């Protein structure tokens, strides 16, 4: 990848590594927004409206995370790839596999598992970014904090 510039205080090699990590996170953040919206449309059952309305703010927040990640990539001189193909090309995580109409409990459990994997991947990214670029690491840390809160909402709903 050819960087258009390098931010002050970082070398090109560290920047390229950080951008690759951020691109992976961007792709999963974009997929997560799609997954959450899919669940929003397909939940059923007695708690439908509560879960339906709980998911839309999460969709918006995750899209905001993706925007922040993409802007960090651009700030570092990279070119964020927001295409649908990038999600598949950059996937290092298990795809969400619940399709169609299911109960709120089934969707929440599947979303909790999806968040589990995403949070683990984000924490790995944080550890790698801590060695490369603390600013990028802090961005992902903020995202993890928000994802963990959303997961807590889902777990509490099922308790």
UniProtKB/TrEMBL annotation:
Alphabetical keyword list: DNA-binding
Occurrences of domain Ferritin/DPS (ranges): 19-158
Query: Which ranges form a coiled coil?
Result: none
- Quote one Gene Ontology molecular function term: oxidoreductase activity, acting on metal ions
Extract the CDD domains matched here: DPS
Spell out the InterPro entries in the cross-references. Answer: DPS_DNA-bd, DPS_DNA-bd_CS, Ferritin-like, Ferritin-like_SF, Ferritin_DPS_dom
Q: Which family does it belong to?
A: Belongs to the Dps family.
Q: What is this protein called?
A: DNA-binding ferritin-like protein
List the source organism.
Bifidobacterium pullorum subsp. gallinarum
Specify the taxonomic lineage.
Answer: Bacteria, Bacillati, Actinomycetota, Actinomycetes, Bifidobacteriales
């Amino acid at each position: 990848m050819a960087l258009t510039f390098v931010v002050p205080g970082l070398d090109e090699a560290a920047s390229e590594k950080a951008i690759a990590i951020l691109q992976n996170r961007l792709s999963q953040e974009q997929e997560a927004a799609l997954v959450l919206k899919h669940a929003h449309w397909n939940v059923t059952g007695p708690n439908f409206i509560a879960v339906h309305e709980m998911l839309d703010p999460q969709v918006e927040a995750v899209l905001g995370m993706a925007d922040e990640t993409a802007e960090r990539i651009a700030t570092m001189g990279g070119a964020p790839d927001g295409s649908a193909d990038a999600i598949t090309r950059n996937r290092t995580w298990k795809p969400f596999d619940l399709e169609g109409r299911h109960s709120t409990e089934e969707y929440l459990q599947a979303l909790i598992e999806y968040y589990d994997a995403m949070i683990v991947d984000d924490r790995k990214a944080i550890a790698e970014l801590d060695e490369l670029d603390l600013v990028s690491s802090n961005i992902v840390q903020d995202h993890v904090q928000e994802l963990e809160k959303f997961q807590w909402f889902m777990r509490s709903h099922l308790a």
